[in-house]
Every structure is written in structure tokens, then in C-alpha cells.
Amino acid sequence: MRDSMNTYNNMVNRCFATCIRSFQEKKVNAEEMDCTKRCVTKFVGYSQRVALRFAEHNAEQAKILQDNESRGNTAELS
């Protein structure tokens, strides 16, 4: 849960800093809204790709560990 909140907060901070340029108007203008949508889409896509890569890496490491245990080998994981 904490990691999810950190990811969300990082996205909000980054997209706000990138897309919101002026506080002269009360409402977000169309350019800022488009920028924010693009930023959020990229950030979410990136986060999903990273999570997928971690899952793949963990699965590979689990397989190596299982193979080593079945052979009686206690070599370290990479």
C-alpha cells in the first residue's frame, strides 16, 4: 500500500510540475489538461512496465533457486 501511495504521489508531483505553468486562472486550461493526461498515461504505463519486469525477474530467480535446490546446489542468485 505504501509503495502505491508513493508512486501516486510521485506521479502527481511530476505531472503538476511539468504541466501546470500558471496560477492566473482558477481553472485548468485545455493545454494543461492535455499535458496532464499525457503525463499520467506515460507514468502509469511506465509503472506497469517496471512492475512487469520485476515480476519476470522474480519468476526467473525463483526458477533458478528451485533448480539449484533440486540439484542440491546452493549457488547465489544473480
From TrEMBL:
Gene3D superfamilies to which the protein is assigned, alphabetical: Mitochondrial import inner membrane translocase subunit tim13 like domains
One of the GO BP terms on file: protein transport
Entry keyword Chaperone: yes
Domain called Tim10-like: residue spans: 1-56
Record membrane topology: Peripheral membrane protein
Cell compartment(s), UniProt: Mitochondrion inner membrane
Purpose of the protein: Mitochondrial intermembrane chaperone that participates in the import and insertion of some multi-pass transmembrane proteins into the mitochondrial inner membrane. Also required for the transfer of beta-barrel precursors from the TOM complex to the sorting and assembly machinery (SAM complex) of the outer membrane. Acts as a chaperone-like protein that protects the hydrophobic precursors from aggregation and guide them through the mitochondrial intermembrane space.
Record's protein name: Mitochondrial import inner membrane translocase subunit
